[in-house]
Amino acid sequence: MAQRTQGGMWCASCKKPIMGVGNTHRFRNAFSVMAVPATGGLSLGGLKSTSFVCPTCGGPAVTKAVAARQAMKANVQEQHEADRRRKVDDGAWWLLRGVFRGILPIKTLYLGGRLPTVDPDVGRNGTTLRLNVQGLQLLGTFLKLKGTFKVLFTIPWSDVTDIAIESPTVSRHSQLISEVRTQGHDDHENEAVLIVEKLDGSEVLFLISDITPEDLAATLARVIEGLNETKGP
Ligand SMILES: [Zn+2]
User: Residue 70 and residue 79: Cα distance in Å, rounded?
Assistant: First the structure.
């Protein structure tokens, strides 16, 4: 059986121009071309190119235009990856893969801290703390927004020097905690204080519910490790 061939094609694996060889799926491809009504020249070309393979490696043969697009896409991804690695080397531990894996949003009571853009009374009830690549984000609702759940503020990791986890009963902030504690909430055993220490010397406090200090420390182990690594000796 005579094989179809098509010149002017490209193999991404061999990184060279090739003569595309018609593959055994030719009929299936021809069928899918027919199944697409009113196909423009462009997509027809795309479908056609998938029916040729490289005579050397058997990989997919593509047109020069498709190869150029694929190369450009790969190049952008490579640059992003190189950029990420460089930032990690410069201390951006939060860009390490998997640092926030398994950290679910944490039910919290925002106890305050010096955050210039936020009303200290904002989000004291029913707020959630989220840790992600952006930083520590407090999500919640406040009256002005009529109950919409949204990010109230973000503390970027570049502003965070340390995270301390304490038991509310022995915390150096236990006085403040008892002052803001909501009524009827006295399950001290199952609470932890999360203290975010910032570059400017200020602290932001969160009272985390339904978790012991030990369990919270275990949950945030990789984050704390990341912070410690960049702190140096
Ligand atoms: Zn090849």
Answer: 14
